[in-house]
Amino acid sequence: MKLKLPIVIFLISLMLFSGCYTKPTLDEYVSELRSNCYESVQSDLPITAGYGYTEKMPSLDGEITQRTYALIFRLKDNQNENITYNICLNFKGKEYKSTFKLNAVSHTLTAIIPVDNFNLNEFDITLSYSSTNQVIKMKSTLPKGTISYSKALEYLQKHQSELVNSYYTNGEFCGEICARVLVKDNHPYWYIGLTNSKGTKALLIDGKSGDVLAVRDIF
Q1: Residues contacting residue 16 through CB under 8 Å, at least 6 positions apart
Q2: Where are the beta strands (DSSP E) in 67-198?
Q3: SS3 label, residue 176
Q4: What is the pLDDT of residues 100-111, one digit of tens each?
């Protein structure tokens, strides 16, 4: 029996779309991200930095609002709080400036520079304090082969599918995700926090293999 042309086209389209179907990713539910880490090179004052984003108006309500991207710098070892430290960054022909202030949570001197689409692994900053102006090179500490946060979330879905599925209700992901990359002893790791109204499930993922190394509850 011959099939009519419209039916044949419909069946072919159905097979093509079925073959291209991909499981929804978790990327869109990330409300806080640190995608790169930096540290100063040959500097009199040790500085660390991280790049990523947070919600413009942070709230663990399960809805991701407008994201704000920024470089966050920290002066280590609690430098003299009576001295004002200023930082200057040039990126894509634009000058960014900020002043270090004491962070009430981390108790470290912190400077925040809002900047979009920052993609450098090495860059220079100028640190000014007292009568000193020091050019400091910042370099990414991420080892070669570190997986992205998107890939870390893919591994999370693969290795912890039952846990991830528990955050879905009627096909909707009910929660928010925090993803932060970190480096310890020259090895990368991803901290992933899954948060809903019941609390936070914290996971540590190997930053190269994607293996889930630890899972714990935080209330």
Answers
A1: none
A2: 67-75, 85-91, 94-99, 101-102, 109-114, 122-129, 132-140, 168-169, 172-173, 176-184, 187-196
A3: strand
A4: 998 888 888 999
